[in-house]
Structure formats: C-alpha cells, structure tokens
Automatic annotation (TrEMBL):
GO terms for biological process: sphingolipid metabolic process. GO terms for cellular component: membrane. Residues 8-155 form the DAGKc domain. It comes from Ceratodon purpureus (Fire moss). Keywords: ATP-binding, Kinase, Nucleotide-binding, Transferase. One of its GO terms (molecular function) is kinase activity. This is DAGKc domain-containing protein.
Amino acid sequence: MSTDADSRRQRDYVFVVNPNGANGRTGQQWKKMLPDLKSRLGKDCNIREALTSAPLHGVEIARKAVQDGAAAVIAVGGDGTLHEVLSGFFTDGKLVQPREARPGPRTALGLIPMGTGSDLARHFGWKSNDSHEAIDRLVKDQRRKIDVGRVQLPDDKIDRYFLSVASFHLSAKAGHIASMYKKFGNLCYVIGAIQAFMTHENKDLRMRKDGSQWTVIPQVTAACIGNSKYFGGGMKITPTADPFNGRLEMVTLTDFKWYDFILKLHTLYQGTHVHLDKVTTTSVQTLEVEDAENKSKGRDVYVQADGEQLGFLPAKFSVLPQELDFIL
Ligand SMILES: Nc1ncnc2c1ncn2[C@@H]1O[C@H](COP(=O)(O)OP(=O)(O)OP(=O)(O)O)[C@@H](O)[C@H]1O
C-alpha cells in the first residue's frame, strides 16, 4: 500500500547542477531559470536542487536520488555532467534500484543542456541554453527507453556509461586536451585536435567485435563508438547512430596524416567522412580493444566517453539496449 510519504517522494525531481559548467555560465543561467522552473513545475513535483562540488560528485548525487526513489534526475550542464548523472543510474551494468519498492514508473533521466559542446542535445535537435524549451520538455514528461553505452577499463575507479559517443586514440586525446581550453568555447575542440596531432602516431590495435575472433586493425588513427551522432562540439562522427536501435555505430579512421585532417575536416562536421577510403563503419553490440604492440601496459592510447577522459586501452565497449527511461 502506498503512503503519503511515498507519493511525495515519487514526485521528487532532483536537478544536478554543475555550477562551473561552460566556464561558470551554467551556474548563472541556473539561478536565472529557477523561478520559471518553480512556477511551471513546482505545483506537480518537489524541485530538489543539488550543486556538484567537484568532478564525479554528480555520480554520487544521482545514485542517491535513484536509491531514494526520485521521479526524475535531471542533469543541468554539459555532456560531462550528463555523463556523471547517467553513470549514477547504474552499477555493474544494472540499473540501481530504489531502497524501498514503490509503485509508479522508474526514475527517469532528464537533461537541461547548458554546456560548451552539448552534443547529445544536438542529436535531438534541442537548443543549448534555452531554459524555456528545456522546461517545456520536463512539463510534458514524455519518456522513452533509451540505449545506454557502457565502457569498462581495468583501471577505472567507477563504472562508466555514455549516451553520445565513446572513442579511443587521437579523438580521445584531442578531447582530453580540449577540456583544458573550455574557456575558448567550441574553439577548444580545434585546439585539442591540433595539439593532439603533434604527438600522435597511428597504431596497430587488436579488436574483437561481438565476441568473435580477435583481429589486428593496422594503423588506427581513431575509432568512435556512437550511441548518438555527435561529439567534439558538433562533429557528426557517427552519422547513422540511433540511441533506440539496440546497437552502437562504430566509425574507424585509419592511416590518416595531418594533412588529411586539414583537407577533410569539413566532412567530419557534415557526416560525409564515412564515404572516404580511410574510413570504415560497422555496427556493434560489444567491442573489445587492446594495443597490439603493448597489450597491457600501454598508457598512450586514450579512451573517452561523452567528452570525458576515462583512461587508456585496453577497454571494452558495450550497449545496454533500451535500459533507461529518458525524458524527451
Ligand atoms: N563543481 C565542479 N567543479 C569543477 N568541475 C566540475 C564540477 N562539477 C562537475 N565538474 C566537471 O566539469 C566538467 C565539465 O562539465 P560540463 O560537461 O557540465 O560542462 P562543459 O564541459 O562546459 O560542457 P560539454 O561537456 O557539453 O562540452 C566535467 O568533467 C565534470 O566532471
């Protein structure tokens, strides 16, 4: 039997805000939008505000909210904040359960996009930094089960999940460098790519797709595993990825030289790079990857997901099909 306390808790909407996102703009915009949010949503649910105090704090806040039986946990910030909140929903590849069984739908994930890149918002055609549009979505509360990508690294401290794109080698190193230049807005991704290329070497990597035979892929420049289409602040890197089809789209760039990037950069933004000779595409449910030259100790092939640097190969990528209620 449900109690008054249960039904109140079911209506908790927990907003996980990164006050330092987008160079501090997220915190300012959040303060501005709060009165509108309270007046449009506050009648039907309890608005709980939780500001992150450091990287990875968002994982903890989200996990506790799911365990407490919140109706929704909403990431307020960029793809990095969304990545943390999403990762709080899972442990060991399974959805975290509420401490006490309760009636009603499971906790849903929502997003108010206010980051630098906001690549997941781009996939859905949502505007970044448009609080009115974001509140509309929360008020309508249309939920759909979305696929969730998972990345497992032997050394990573936490379980990692992604909704946009995970990748390794040049793209991941570029993303890592870009994160240090967020004050330049979307230009940070160009700076990241140029700097990463200066010390980059294409590498032979061993890969195993969907549990089949291991194969060496020679001279890999970068490989991207997309649950949705965009990364790097608007590059349409996995142009046919669909977060509702139960699979991940993999795009591998091999044997790229520095001048290929200059000549072909525009194709990455248009999504037409998949037609180039040095690019292959496939769809996967799991992918295991290791450095063919230096199987266990190599710390030079970077791995990222949703723009967050996670560590280095070896890594395993997989999809949890239609696992999570997402507010569209
Ligand atoms: N309170 C905090 N102080 C410092 N860093 C934080 C804090 N909370 C979260 N972070 C870190 O800030 C990073 C970036 O956050 P976020 O994604 O919200 O903004 P962004 O980088 O500007 O946007 P995008 O990821 O869309 O480009 C994440 O790596 C996250 O771990």
